[in-house]
Task: structure prediction
Amino acid sequence: MTDVRTPSLGLLADPDYRRLFASTSVSQFGFQITQLALPLVAIMALAASPFQVGLLTALSTASFLLLGLPAGAWVDRWRRRTVLIVGDLGRAVVLITVPVAWWAGVLTMSQLYVVAFLLGTFTVFFDVAYQSYLPHLVGRPNLVEGNSKLESVRALAQLGGPALAGQLIRWLTAPVALLLDAVAMAASAIFVARIRKPEPKPAPRPDAHLLREIGEGLRFVLGHRLLRPIAATTGTANLFGAAAMAVTLLFLERELGLNAGTIGLVITVASGGGLLGAIYARRLAGRFGQGPTIWAAIAFTAPFQLLMPLVAAPGWRLWVAAAGGFVASFGVVVYNVTQVSFRQSITPDALLGRMNATIRFLVWGTLPIGGLLGGVLGELLGIRGALLAATVASCFAFLPAFCSPLRGMRRLPEPDDPVTVDAVS
Result:
């Protein structure tokens, strides 16, 4: 990547990075619409039960468990930019089917289940290719800056997206709002298609074997003394986060009686800390060290999530709980920026797809399990009890990272340091 940066713009001075940044911007705002609209279609239009909403949540991420590992091996054989374009266009086509079926009066939970699964399938390939493409586009020395800027736009989408999505759902209905996400995904594909930097075709490997390549990715991650605890911490957080998410919208809509607009505003406030997290992640890692920042970002912020299930009725306590979510989302983004940049920096380019896919398999593979867990807990403990149980459990997600060499490691090792070489040999 030619360094055309200026001090004020950094990587944004590079046209290709700007195109990726624009793609991320529109797709992330569209994603926020779907995150709110798809379950609300089930809840409001089809009167879904807690278990049905949990199953919908599980199916939206089931592909990470079922296809995550082979996706990494396949992505390492393909040009990653092509995978990004196909992933965006595929999601756009799938999303369009919901408003069409709704207008025709034939929308069912079965269709929503299929839509959720297909969206997740395209997302598996897109996400693995996305994290593997960035090092090629910006160069490894610029990864923290590149990830921070992209995480900033995701955080901004989380800040404004739910409120916008809530109002769109009120004005247009949830099925029609999904049509706007389809347009956003198509626009994202156009931006990626306009990136000019040549991407070399992956070198052919005559001896390539899918199972062998999957095994290489698993051995690299599970045999690494730093990647292993990061995967365990992230997977645990995602497990109980998905359980909480499966019942959160039910809690806000049925327990507290909020409309779609207010639900979107609550989620906006709770997600707002992510923008600050993206801004401050780099300086926090520099001030306290990358290792301590990784575990502390979760340990000191996750308990603030406990405020939400304690809210009994709409009022000031609801907004205090939303502010607690603000703190928690700050910690999540600081954690993500720090650990994702580290993973990318220590992994050989030929293994990037498999490393990212293995991590995704391990940490996103817990999401469908968590979604089902939330639905089952909702049936057994009630919606409020399920939300409380999930948030309490998430407070302990930091322990694998805390009980590893990361705890006091101010500088993460280079790939040729003994801690890395020994771990992956």
In short: The chain has a mean pLDDT of 84. The domain at 14-193+210-424 is CATH 1.20.1250.20 (Growth Hormone; Chain: A;). The first helix runs from residue 15 to 45.
